[in-house]
Fold Integrin alpha-2 domain-containing protein.
Amino acid sequence: MGDSLPAVDLGGRPAASVAAGEQHTCALLKDAAVVCWGGNRLGQLGQGDTGSRGDTSGSMGQTLVQVNLGVGSYPPVVDLSDFYYFGTGVRLNGSTSGDHVGWSVAGAGDFNGDGVCDIAAVGNVSGSSSGLGYLVYGSVESFGSSFALSGLDGSNGFQISGVSGEGVFMAVDAAGDFNQDAKSDVVIGVPYAESGGNAEAGGAYVLYGGLSSGAVFDLSSLSSATGVRIEGSEAYGRAGWAVAGGGDVDLNGVGDVIVSAPSASGGIGEVYVVFGAASGMGASVDVSGLDGSNGFKVVGVNSSAGGAGWSVAFGDVQSDGYSDVLIGAPFGGDSTGEAYSVFGHASAFDATLYLSSLVLGVEGLQMRGVDGGDNAGYSIAGAGDVNGDGIGDVMIGAPFADLGPGWGPSGADSGEVYVVLGKPLLSSSSSSSSSSSSSSSSSSS
């Protein structure tokens, strides 16, 4: 027998029906009034003050009958301007004007190893010479409807302070278990950093889960015990423009990360896949040293400055267990845009892979946009299994696509999102046409 559910006094007014969920409960009363309040599991009713309870005096009514509380449901529409429905979420507030916290956000996995998932957010700070980020530890206790990031003290998370002169953080993502210590890691892109004496060569930082930190972790103090700096090699290549983690391209059980440099090679773009290692890799690794055994470089198509790597992600479009490298090149093909999937595999990788010579259907896929100026590939993501066939799918954003045919658009820049369905063991004879037609036939605005 479980514990008795707490009771709410409905004050003599009978309830016609009650919907009880994990984090709030709603009752339709006989007089047609609807009342909602927070669930008890997170201490939002029956303890604490009105600031932490789901029912504040005078706003939801106090003349109620009696209902027993359940746990977890949501209103059909969650308005982010009004977190009155306790249990729908929490707002994280930046601390200083111009911080732009939320420029990039990610689930960080279980960074501190307490069994609860954590979150990471970075800010593109106006006029700053160094980056600013936050790692907030998840908790089974309530955050309330808002949480001030200035309140991070090391026990509930910490601030990540960039190195002076390296510029802002551009992107953040969970890095999986990059050093195989059974804790989740985080990767942060710093595309404007100087690396190896090359201006704006860029780079990325992988922070190892479980690192000891007070209220602030300064990246200038990074060591091989707390993380690794991945350094770009080409001036103004801007490695770290986009980052991705959590994949395992060679399926060796250690997480890998992607760091992209869309401005490298004269705007053709380069993408670096860096393999994680259980033995660690020192405090820094230069992408020029990737040789196939520790990672590899992907170079965009030479015929156009497509900006390969403007967006990157991991996916598994063949459902073979190997993570595939998803690359957006939104400025390719007269800005029609292109996207690529480079297949993961067990055999050795070459140090450099050229998308122009990719054997389609065997080594990867090309997915082309529809009309000039659509910029397909501006964003890309592994979509999970959208149609329930057991195979991973891909989402490709084309934010500047016009509604209707290219010769007569009715909604300029309305944008499109394409869902490309994965297929097992794709063959080279069908991949080029099928990937192109899939992009056209599976769009949604």
